[in-house]
């Protein structure tokens, strides 16, 4: 038997380029902020999940110990090839819905200069798997893999570098209104084109901005959430998707990502469409990811993302305000946990100068290329 689930609290640690806290300290700070927001204590928590990335953060048991949580009924360290910070949020929502726990914490923290322990993706040994064929040729970075996808999209649909520039400029404008954003100085298209090339067609301003920081979310049953400090935000649905092939280079159609499958399944399961959404917080580890998500979610037709964005449709006060906190491009690379926090705050009407008027339903997405996740939220 399942039950209605809600986000009851959200919170951040300090966010910046060189925060004097460990990855574990940032995680604890974010969790405590989310618990305060919900009006509960660590003793109320009986479930916890994180996405520890390439072992660049801390497992759940260390956070439990630091918070003073004695035992939990459900836990998950969701390391792997998954859509980052949205992953533990969706997993925690499912766990609460199924009754595995009553109050769950989901968190993600990052340090720019974290030293991995020599395991998994963070290891320093020999290249394994398909990486052994990429590494000798210098083909090791996500920016390189996604650049090929972006170029194919440009070839097929006429998408331009200027279209990508409009994404960077718009998200920076949103960040100027976000006191937590590390990049708050406005930029122009001229500034965008003046930024250095990273991997054609991506410039520096097409890439997310690495920071130290963490975010956390408290999830509980709707019944319990209604009695807590903040208005509950209902979790309508959350899901994951992949595609037909695990290798980026072998994907059969580089004009779309796994987001296509996540979006189709989300709308099928919920009976909703993009027209029901008031605010979108879509993954933007690179600018083109945001464009592709907007297309695949149905905010515009496939191939029309560039003109749709250039015409101002993702700005505050327009058709579908997108990444209202500045996204990862200007709000800092927190691996989409910040996108969840922002969506919840928008639906609670707490975003001040960047508030989307009348926002009742929001979508959060994460992932790029061969994997994707999507989370649909509504003001209760």
Description:
The protein has helices at residues 23-38, 60-67, 86-97, 131-134, 142-157, 161-175, 189-194, 222-225, 259-270, 287-297, 305-310, 327-331, 337-347, and strands spanning 5-12, 47-50, 74-77, 103-110, 197-199, 202-203, 213-221, 233-242, 279-281, 361-366, 371-379. The protein is globular and about 55 Å long. 52% of the residues are buried. The strands form two sheets. The protein has a nine-stranded mixed sheet with strand order 3-2-4-7-1-8-11-10-9. Strands 5-6 form a two-stranded antiparallel ribbon. Residues 117-123 have low confidence and may be disordered. It has 13 helices and eleven strands. Helix 2 links the parallel strand 2 (47-50) and strand 3. It is of the alpha/beta class and 380 residues long.
Total count of strands: 11
Q: Using only CA atoms, what is the Rg?
A: 19 Å
Could you give the distance between the termini? 21 Å
Helix content: 25-40%
Going by helix content, strand content and strand pairing, the class is alpha/beta
Mean pLDDT metric: 92
Largest sheet: 9 strands, mixed
Strands of the widest sheet, in order across it, are: 3-2-4-7-1-8-11-10-9
Order of helices and strands: EHEHEHEHHHHEEEHEHEHHHHEE
| Low-pLDDT stretches | 117-123
Number of helices: 13
Question: Per DSSP, what share of the residues sits in E-state strands of 2 or more residues?
Answer: 15-25%
Bulk shape: globular
